[in-house]
Amino acid sequence: MVFVITCSPVIRAMSCEFIRLYEENPEEGKLDHIVSVLRDGGVIIYPTDTVYGIGCDFSNAKAVQRVCRIKETTPSALSFICYDLSEISEYTKQLSTPVFKVMKKALPGPFTFILNANSQVPKVLNAKKKTVGIRVPNNNIPRQLVRRLGSPIITTSLRDEDEVIEYSTDPELIFEKYEKLVDVVIDGGYGGNVPSTIVDCSGDEFVLVREGLGDINQYL
């Protein structure tokens, strides 16, 4: 199935919920409620082990459209969050032994790995390329959402208009800014201000695309 991205205006949320979750022990009832929002095509903002992210169920084309309009980006620029390595293998071509060993040591962690996508990745995410960025963050909140949802969630960073701060870190200020645009803002405490390290593993060598919070040299 091929999804078509249109350029219609940003769809505004009817009402936005501000939900507090603790990473160490996120409440199951709240997690299940957020998952139901995702299944209904909702867009959420959530904490990761680096910066706050905005996303949706990666298989919901209309929700992906909303994320792209809010962030003024294209689907091919989006990455997605998996629960663990075994889930990653469902959406990528077979990993080489060196890549698998590095990812096994580095994940969960502050890395985005660019991998060769297989046919299970919705066309809306890789229509113009054959690779996809995948994360397994070291944060229990998004991973538990993915586990309950049964499919990955989109992730793209929330940038701040302040060039010094660069990334939005205060969940209450994030809510004030996005409450008309998204369905849920998860308050997982203050976020970081350094994004994930991006490593391209689609070729024969590890290529550092962006140096962020993670040090990939520790695992090579």
From TrEMBL:
Domain of life: Bacteria
InterPro entries, sorted: DHBP_synth_RibB-like_a/b_dom, Sua5-like_dom, SUA5_domain
Gene Ontology MF annotations: double-stranded RNA binding
Database matches in PROSITE patterns: YRDC
SUPFAM superfamilies: YrdC/RibB (SSF55821)
Domain YrdC-like: 28-214
UniProt-recorded name of the protein: tRNA threonylcarbamoyl adenosine modification protein, Sua5/YciO/YrdC/YwlC family
Species of origin: Roseivirga pacifica
